[in-house]
Amino acid sequence: MIVVSDTSPINYLVQLGIIEILPQLFETVIIPAEVHRELTSQRTPPVVHEWISTPPDWLEIRQNSTLIITQKADPGETAAIALAIELQPDYIVVDDLKGRKIARANHLRIIGTVGIIELAYQQGLLDLKTKLDELLQTNFHIDEIIIQQVLDRNA
User: Fold this and answer.
1) N or C: which end of the chain has fewer CB within 10 A?
2) Which fold has domain 2-153?
3) What is the pTM of this model?
């Protein structure tokens, strides 16, 4: 499976210490150059900045697509969506609601940070409740009803 990721899922998976689940779940993980730039920004948490300073071999960084998206999200999301439209991966990994709406309008299959954590749990790679609790302790924004639905679905 191939995925194209936006900045936020990479950011949170690194902060949670579970970024290595990505190559276990997906054959190829691609980020556009704009997402790489955002991950190296001074605003990025130090642990994320350190991680991206020497990207792992399994992470492909591709030049941003030349495709123009008329609906704009933040630069990383826009670049990830454009690259996903071009590559047609199995999933685009995006959390932001505006980015998800644009991806959906472009017929892309979406998975987010919570979906990745759920998938990793289903494959026996982590404890679901522990990681979701840790995610909620970051500045990640999600309705707790969604978290409860994920927990109930996997009870």
Assistant:
1) C
2) Rossmann fold (3.40.50)
3) 0.93
